[in-house]
Amino acid sequence: MIQLLYTVIAAEMALILTLLFKTPLRKLVIMALDRVKRGRGPVMVKTVAATVFMVLSSSVYGMAKIQNNKLEAGALNPTDEILMARHMLESSLMVFLLFLSLMIDRLHHYIRELRLLRKTMEAAKKQNRGFEDGKNGNAEEIKAMGEEIASLRKKIGKLELDCEAKGKEAKTAQAEAEASRKQSEKLLLEYDHLVEDNQNLRNQLESIDQSSLQSNGKNM
């Protein structure tokens, strides 16, 4: 029994040392503990722990019984002393075994929590990098849009100047057209006057011709 307890304690100590230091073997140990904690593993562990606790209780009861015999007899015989020492050693080893088991369970739990925390932090860092990259991309897009807006403003200013020049040209052309229209109206009026004078002259000539014809007819 004592040799078995020493063997189990030595195995547990080696397991704890493996969990404390980051080595390739620790990954295998963690995977093994993960499998132990799944399915029927927890039931088996609890059963073994309950068995050890019962044996521990039996050893404590044996020590209490030997202590009572000592009180009754006043002294212990060599056999009781050997049994008392054996029970004390077994009890100490079993308590130490249970303590190491608890340490292994807590170390495994904390290592898993630390891994999850690291994964969460890495994911957060990746998100921050993606956000910063997106922010830089948006800044570049905004800069490009600003440059495009500036070029469009220059084009708009140039177009406004062209429109203003075209407007001046149009006003000049309109003024010239207005002057031409007025000149045409004057020419039309003069033409009408000339036509009217021509008609008057024709009428006068016709009246003169008629008068001459009439005077010639009287003379004959």
UniProtKB/TrEMBL annotation:
It is found in: Endoplasmic reticulum membrane. Keywords: Apoptosis, Coiled coil, Endoplasmic reticulum, ER-Golgi transport, Membrane, Protein transport, Receptor, Transmembrane, Transmembrane helix, Transport. Residues 107-211 form a coiled coil. One of its GO terms (cellular component) is endoplasmic reticulum membrane. Its main location: endoplasmic reticulum. The keyword Transmembrane helix applies. One of its GO terms (biological process) is intracellular protein transport. It is a multi-pass membrane protein. The keyword DNA repair does not apply. The chain crosses the membrane at residues 6-22, 43-64, 84-104. InterPro entries: BAP29/BAP31. It comes from the Eukaryota. PANTHER family: BCR-ASSOCIATED PROTEIN, BAP (PTHR12701), ENDOPLASMIC RETICULUM TRANSMEMBRANE PROTEIN (PTHR12701:SF44). Belongs to the BCAP29/BCAP31 family. May play a role in anterograde transport of membrane proteins from the endoplasmic reticulum to the Golgi. This is Endoplasmic reticulum transmembrane protein. It comes from Tripterygium wilfordii (Thunder God vine). The lineage of its organism: Eukaryota, Viridiplantae, Streptophyta, Embryophyta, Tracheophyta.
